[in-house]
């Protein structure tokens, strides 16, 4: 049987764990609008490499938009209303991102998700993100929505303990992943990005994670 052309915009949701849903291609129809919205954000708050509290430079470059932004320095990890580079508030959360996050959360079974923070991660080939938990947010009852753009990645979905076995999940341009509930504190990470050139994004991967941080 030939594939429906609806599949150009993604296949069926895949439940990866009890409260973790992959929405393949969910953002594909809005990539250009997302990139248009990101351009002024990146102009006001360019990607930068932060340092861990232990003084290590992070391989992933990042920035934020929204009322709160995630920062890391010698004082620790936290959400801050201002960009430490510019001293200004982070750029506002673009409406197209807010709406996409709400739609994706609803499609995954989480109603009324209103994020106040978007962490934007930038990966070059070879960049990885080691296994960690997202625990700097105020309310772990709120889900997180992530949007993948550009080069494909393999993310590692672990368990509640760092030592738990991990499943490898391929993430492509336009995929959206939503996780919450009992999966909210699972360990997770990203394997080194394979060399390549994405036809729209070039030699990079950008991941947007929308959160209710405050
Ligand atoms: C969370 N970002 O910014 S998001 C982060 O692709 C972060 O840039 C990654 O982790 C990135 O904190 C991954 C996707 C993801 C996947 C599976 C998870 C996050 C998850 C499972 C449990 C909890
Ligand atoms: Fe994370």
From TrEMBL:
It is an enzyme of class 1 (oxidoreductase). GO terms for cellular component: cytoplasm. One of its GO terms (molecular function) is ferrous iron binding. Its EC number is 1.14.11.33. Binds 1 Fe(2+) ion per subunit. It comes from the Bacteria. 2-oxoglutarate binds at residues 121-123, 205-211. Residues 114-214 form the Fe2OG dioxygenase domain. Keywords: Dioxygenase, Iron, Metal-binding, Oxidoreductase. GO terms for biological process: oxidative RNA demethylation. NCBIfam families: PRK15401.1. PANTHER family: ALKYLATED DNA REPAIR PROTEIN ALKB-RELATED, NUCLEIC ACID DIOXYGENASE ALKBH1. This is Alpha-ketoglutarate-dependent dioxygenase AlkB. It comes from Pseudomonas reidholzensis.
